[in-house]
Amino acid sequence: MEVVILGSGNVATHLAYALKKAEYHVKQVFSRQYEHARQLADGIGAEPVDQLQHITTEADVYIIAVKDESIQEVASSLRLRNKILLHTSGSTDMDVLRPFSTSYGVLYPLQTISKEVELDFSKIPLILEFSDQRTKEMMMNLAFKLSPLIYEYNSEQRRCLHLGAVFACNFSNFLYTISYDFLKGKEVDFSLLKPLIMETAAKIQDHIPKDIQTGPAVRNDQNTIQKHMALLEHYPAWKNIYQVLSNEIVQTYAAKEE
Amino acid sequence: MEVVILGSGNVATHLAYALKKAEYHVKQVFSRQYEHARQLADGIGAEPVDQLQHITTEADVYIIAVKDESIQEVASSLRLRNKILLHTSGSTDMDVLRPFSTSYGVLYPLQTISKEVELDFSKIPLILEFSDQRTKEMMMNLAFKLSPLIYEYNSEQRRCLHLGAVFACNFSNFLYTISYDFLKGKEVDFSLLKPLIMETAAKIQDHIPKDIQTGPAVRNDQNTIQKHMALLEHYPAWKNIYQVLSNEIVQTYAAKEE
Question: Which of its termini does chain A have fewer beta carbons within 10 Å around, N or C?
Fold first, then answer.
């Protein structure tokens, strides 16, 4: 099975290397910026392409791993008929690909992917959706060679999962940033919190997060909350976030006790 | 050195067992609810006490591990003169103890402590503050036997650290809860996010959180943000949190790029 990767960003990069490791032949890598295409293509022994009309019609699978808003545009430039066409987006419906091939689907790697951080693709859940049974059968081998963690969800569920990941991961990371920046300004070592952050993530591996909530808001400890708000006096955006989250925690647990 | 523990909650419990493990003699455990005092006291071979006037005046160290708002009240009921008096609160000034002994301080275990979850105290950073050098010298041995991770910070820094922990840990856990509850309602398996949550926490062990932010908001991907807001239409509180955090991420990274 020959593969073409359209895109050179985080997902495209990790996916391309994972395919190479699984001994698939990535024929071409496309990016509008030739240098980006070349850099990734060189790493995996593929041909770099910076013009959509130069993309081969002879490969078996075309994986679009570009920004969500560019998926349709890239798909519409390919002439595939019945070649397999996939995108990798958590929040984009599979059906945006329908006009462009008879055989299409989604391969969404559920991970917070930064180019800089090395990644073991075999530990990443792959969320899959296919236009039809035949496409599914053709893709399952490839999928399992990338990761044993295979899940089939429809587009609505996948979008919900992506939203869940935004709350649990993207937003959590932003809270780490607030904590980091706040403590830096106070000459307190953020590193002290690192074991605590790991412990917080580790705990929910085998507990329901609602059952292990700690902190002043869950105790409705308004005294501490007011002290914290005072510390945030000169940081109105962080103060607002503190207030919104604390209020919601107070209300969630007040409702629970009733 | 003989120790009295005042309190029977999460911190009191883990601290009492850690002291026992370090071969300190915990003489008494106080709780207003006799059953609570008894339960903890039995586990560590101490005497349970449910009336403040029955607390011995003969111990060396009195550790108040009660709710922040009760610290002063408990302290004021003890007659200690020059015995060492400590509290364990992140957000309470050391000086609330000044009227009650000549020798006082704070031993704040920086951890998200739930009674249900087992804890290795030796991996918890202890944030210490003492009224004077003599008290410090007397307490350092005990502190090091509990944990090698010893830090001295003043009350202001400790309060900032506590606030940092609220953002990075308590609020993160609440975001896990939102994600869990939302996905449960959509029949999507929250467990899928568990590796992602671990990875998010693991990444900041050796990266600055601001440098590894991912998700739609950091890309200012309004298309995805609007799709997510639509999914949250029937959950106004979560929608508000989504909006507040996304806006702040957009603004933080817009400012960074300028």
Answer: C
